[in-house]
Design brief:
It contains 15 helices and 12 strands. By secondary structure, it is α/β, with parallel strands linked by helices. It has an 8-stranded parallel beta barrel, surrounded by 8 helices. Helix 8 links the parallel strand 7 (240-243) and strand 8 (272-277). It is an enzyme of class 1 (oxidoreductase).
Length: 477
């Protein structure tokens, strides 16, 4: 691979071979707090999307292309952390520092905590919508602390409200942040006390998150400690780390935590990358929001764009639990979302170049097996004036799939990657066997690859060079 300019993303793909019953039992137990499942009575209504449902507790349901971790105990999470640290060492040693490690946040902590933090983020957005008096992207409202004081005008003289207003933060443009989100990745963070807002009518403080017992608060701090350890090690070794996307009921928490890790560690280059699934209706808005935060708070933004792995499960769950389907209605709509999001990223990179600001402030991986999307990305790069040597756009495909896309990209000087699942054979088989059942579109691509291989063999036989090997010493970008 290296000789053809292709680099690796090492993906430790060990999965426990659990029965459906065992997976459901573990997930339900790990997704419900010992303090109960509902928010306290003085808080807003809970959101059904962010609660566990036994029907969908086995997160492998209708999912072929993503590995799944089920929480057992804190010791298992510690072992997963140690494994990810070994992956980083492998990336540093085997890839001359050009490779990337992929990790999943559900491997490092209790899923209940991700559910609760996801819900509080959506509750906070709802509160901000009420403050703004409209819908849409909350960042475009540009609300300031003064706006919040006016919103709470009738109750602003109450002691608890005054305390809340003193803690509210804003960025360099004066834009309001309800909570000091940086605190979420501090190992002394108290979730139950952090996420409280004043009711604009009564002035009473209400929780946006259900009461979390001390033991579970400690579990959250452990999860953050593990992630901090992994990212700090990646920074020390000078390799990069991609945090995979997961189901929409975990994703707000995963994205928020990842963004805070970017703010903390992406100060000189993009070390941490977030993953955005373009089959979701809100992807473009989320990417724009995060790009805006990176710009305002002056950190390097890293993103991997994928179509996504959980669409069938997401649709089935939304229909069963009665909340709005978060996914795009068609393949074409997903492609449009992908291309629109990618174009916005490229446009912003061009703005950085024109302003003589480091264009690497935004780093994007186009992770797609779709030829049209890869072609679109290359054409847009040329149109906007972004070159392979700028090292801001890279491409990624799975090992063993679409080699006819990856290797020509590497040979042509583009930054190209292969996603390599690895681990002890017997422990990787549960994941690989599900990947083997992947959709028909992939099988059609295999047919195309077979046609191309047959064509190449025919050419070599005609030239009498059956064992000819192209001479390639392409330096990976």
């Amino acid at each position: 691979m290296r000789s053809f300019g292709v680099k690796p993303i090492l993906d430790y793909s060990v999965e426990e071979d659990l029965s459906q019953e065992e997976a459901e039992k573990r997930e339900v137990e790990a997704s419900v707090s010992s303090a109960g499942t509902n928010l306290s009575e003085d808080s807003a209504d809970s959101l059904p999307q962010y609660s566990v449902d036994k029907t969908f507790a086995d997160r492998r349901y209708k999912v072929q292309s993503a590995r799944t971790y089920f929480y057992l105990n804190e010791a298992t999470c510690e072992r997963n952390m140690e494994t990810f640290l070994e992956c980083l060492d492998a990336v540093k040693g085997a890839t001359f520092g050009t490779g990337i490690t992929a990790i999943k946040l559900t491997a490092l902590g209790r899923p209940q905590l991700l559910l609760q933090v996801s819900e509080v983020i959506m509750q906070a957005r709802r509160y901000m919508m009420d403050l703004a008096g409209s819908t849409g992207n909350i960042l475009t409202h540009h609300k300031t602390i003064q706006d919040l004081e006016r919103y709470l005008g009738n109750v602003s003289d109450k002691a608890e409200v005054k305390q809340f207003l003193e803690k509210v933060t804003s960025d360099k443009d004066g834009i309001l942040h309800l909570f000091p989100w940086t605190g979420i990745i501090n190992e002394d963070c108290q979730l139950s006390e952090t996420f409280r807002v004043p009711d604009p009518v009564t002035g009473q403080m209400r929780r946006l998150i259900s009461k979390i017992p001390p033991k579970e608060e400690e579990m959250f701090r452990n999860m953050i400690r593990r992630l901090n350890t992994i990212v700090k090690t990646a920074q020390d070794l000078d390799v990069r780390i991609m945090i995979d996307a997961e189901q929409t009921y975990f994703q707000p928490a995963i994205s928020r935590i990842t963004l805070e890790m970017m703010r903390k560690y992406n100060t000189e280059k993009a070390i941490v990358f977030n993953t955005y699934q373009c089959y979701l209706k809100d992807t473009y808005k989320e990417v724009c929001t995060d790009l805006e935060q990176a710009k305002r708070q002056n950190f390097y933004f890293g993103a991997k764009l994928v179509r996504g792995a959980y669409i069938e499960q997401e649709r089935a769950r939304a229909a069963a639990l009665g909340y709005e389907d978060p996914t795009n209605p068609s393949f074409e709509a997903t492609t449009e979302m992908y291309h629109k999001t990618l174009t916005e990223c490229l446009r912003r990179i061009r703005i950085l170049k024109d302003a003589n600001i480091d264009p690497k402030k935004i780093a994007i991986m186009v992770a797609s097996h779709n030829e049209d999307t890869v072609r679109f990305a290359i054409e847009k790069m040329q149109e906007i004036g972004i070159h392979p040597e700028d090292k801001v756009i890279c491409f990624g495909q799975l090992l063993g799939m679409c080699d006819y896309i990856t290797f020509p990209l590497g040979q042509a000087g583009y930054s190209a990657y292969k996603y390599i699942p690895y681990g002890p054979v017997n422990e990787v088989l549960p994941y690989l066997s599900r990947r083997a059942q992947e959709n028909k579109g992939v099988l059609q691509k295999i047919k195309k690859e077979k046609r191309l291989l047959l064509s190449e063999i025919t050419k070599r036989l005609a030239k009498g060079q059956l064992f000819y090997k192209p001479k390639g010493k392409y330096v990976p970008i």
